[in-house]
Amino acid sequence: MDEKLKTILEKTAEMFITLGIKSVSMDDIAAELSISKKTLYKYVSDKTDLVQKTFYYKFENKKQEIVAMAEKSANAIEEVLMIFEMIVNMTKNFNPNLEHDLKKYYRPISEKFINHRLEHTFTVTKRNLERGISEGIYRKDIDAETIAKQHALSLTGNFEKTSNLFKDFDCADAIRERIFYHLHAICNENGLEILKNLTHKH
Fold this sequence. Notes:
Elements: H1 3-19, H2 26-33, H3 37-40, H4 47-72, H5 76-92, H6 96-105, H7 107-134, H8 144-156, H9 171-186, H10 189-201
Helix pairs in contact: 1-4, 4-5, 4-7, 5-7, 5-9, 6-7, 7-8
């Protein structure tokens, strides 16, 4: 990818995260980058194109980070915990207006992005389950395909806070509980011992 385009997408992502999508204009982005709108339109055709390119650029970056975590981790359990830390750090800076604006004003992009995220989460989870089984730390009798689908759906689901039941709902807490619920369900005795030791580290 062209380095100038990368710079544009990085700055656009920062602005979307901070301000939401709707409130950021092409003029705002050009001014923030100290370039003319004419230069900006050399790299994107319109704001919709910019939104799509920005989301998929950040998505691909996260995919590469997850691959790196798998290679760096000592075992399948540590891989899950490292990914969990990354997700929690993302939620800390997450602006709810970002997802709202994407759904309301760019629904086709939102739907495609959700599907890509769901499929990627499934692929990563299934690969991790197979790794854990081969390492002798996950139960051998688990159905990796089914569990990966269930786990992907639970992590990529949307929590609407329209009900009083969810008004104090903390996304990071929910993810943590879901991750540990998942690990306790799939680990064998060896895995549970590793999980106990790694929990202190992470």
